[in-house]
Predict the 3D structure of the following.
Amino acid sequence: MDLDDMANVRQEVFTGALPGWKDVELSVDEAYYEYRSHEEGVVADYIPVLAEADPDWFGVAVAQTGGRVHGVGDCDVEFTVQSISKAFVFALVCDAIGHDVIKEKVGVNNTGLPFHSVMAIELNRGHPMNPMVNAGALATTALVPGASAEEQWKLIRSGMSQFAGRSLELDGAVYHSEMVSNQRNQAIARLLESYGQIDRDPPEVVDVYTRQCSLRVTASDLAVMGATLAGGGINPVTAEKVVSPEVCRDTLAVMASTGLYERSGEWLFEIGLPAKSGVSGGIVAIAPGKGGIGSFSPLLDSAGNSVRGQRATAHLSRTLGLNLFASDVDPTRVHRPGA
Ligand code: GLN
């Protein structure tokens, strides 16, 4: 069967619901109190300003597709969205240019290499491979509609704000700090240009990409943004339509395979949910049809994923029954010898 033809076959969708809201609130609180004293991991410092983050910050929030949100700890502390923007800008671009174009131009396969790998581009003869690594994210940002970089930025900022259900602001200090230290991203953009993979001016593409990474969000925002992707593209709080259900499906598929960098396989094995992490300590995870989980804690593992955030999400995935790959035995189908 030709997989390229499959995207347009009509799909039925069955997802189930979250447990009762009291149980959800209890699980969120448990996840917070269980892991808040965990101190493994290090704060990122390759973007100089990020090193100033407080290692104690920790917030967890869940939003359901029906609009309820529950957060605990530092769930309203703002931090820069960083790589998590890759998933949402991908969704906006997918909505604008479609499934097939993005699949061909950016790709949806894992590189198995770190997010800022130059080698991955060379190994794949200039193809960015997927939108969750820097090469693919830069190629995706280059595809955002707009006559100028300024127009592209406007579209990104308003689209990301629609996902969050409030107007997101640029963190000027983080943006400037990254712009003077992002030679590697500039090199990646030039390399993509040399392979004919981006049509816009590479420094402008890097500039817009760095701005999208510097938008300020909270763990509660991430939960709502995730719940928008969980609910067919409708923001659960504002009821606004942000993207189509097909775009949500495509975005979650890419997040599942590549959202936690080279740890994505392990993440799926342990937690079983599409997710995306960012280097300032945010993680968004999505339970399709049910809701979104947002977490924030700046202590990162060696791949750049928040340690407390991963543990809190794992706890919620297990206690709320969110793992996409889990099933249970139907007792009426169990064969009992002699019965
Ligand atoms: N803005 C950062 C970069 O491009 C985002 C990286 C991340 O969150 N992993 O390097």
User: Anything to note?
Assistant: The two ends are 43 Å apart (CA to CA). Residues 82-83, 115-116, 134, 178, 185, 213, 278-279, 304 surround glutamine (CB under 6 Å). The longest helix spans residues 149-164. Strands lie at 59-64, 69-73, 79-80, 216-217, 275-277, 282-287, 291-296.
